[in-house]
Automatic annotation (TrEMBL):
Region described as Disordered: spans on this chain: 1-32
Gene3D superfamilies: 2.40.50.90
Source organism, top-level taxon: Bacteria
InterPro entries: SNase_OB-fold_sf, Staphylococal_nuclease_OB-fold
Protein name in the entry: TNase-like domain-containing protein
Length: 143
């Protein structure tokens, strides 16, 4: 576990679930959002919409980070809050990310509510990103 906190504006959203702050790539804790190029089986642009929503929630706003870990790519994994609201919880609640239960059960309730209400990815037959990435790791091109 990485200790500490950080605060400052997001400089850029580098993809659907990574934001750069002070030169550091941050990944919100406990979620996995669709990959930027990922679309759902019905063509719904899940990755692009998740990134757009994250950008809208963070533009010109201070982000408070509670560091939790570092992933294998060196990104800081943190609970990220804007205006006191947890960005991971927002994305999962709105159906723009999944609770990443491999690492945390923090957002299981938000995901269950999003599924029940058929919000976002749950209304479009989207494959979770951990499954969507498998062919990429095996050398296939983005679909």
């Amino acid at each position: 576990m990485v200790a500490g906190t950080g605060q400052g504006p997001a400089q850029t959203i580098t993809d659907d679930d990574t934001l750069k702050q002070g030169g550091v790539n941050n990944r919100p804790w406990g979620i996995d959002a669709p990959e930027l190029a990922q679309t759902c089986s019905d063509g719904w642009p899940a990755g692009r919409l998740a990134a757009t929503r994250l950008q809208a929630r963070t533009v010109r706003r201070s982000i408070v980070r509670q560091l939790r870990d570092r992933n294998r790519y060196g990104r800081v994994v943190a609970i990220c809050r804007v205006g006191g609201e947890d960005l991971g919880a927002i994305l999962v609640r709105e159906g723009l990310a999944w609770a990443f239960v491999r690492y945390s059960s923090d957002y299981v309730g938000q995901e269950a509510a999003a599924k029940a209400a058929r919000r976002g990815v749950h209304a479009h037959g989207c494959q979770p990103p951990w499954g969507w990435r498998v062919p990429l790791r095996e050398g296939a091109k983005y679909r």
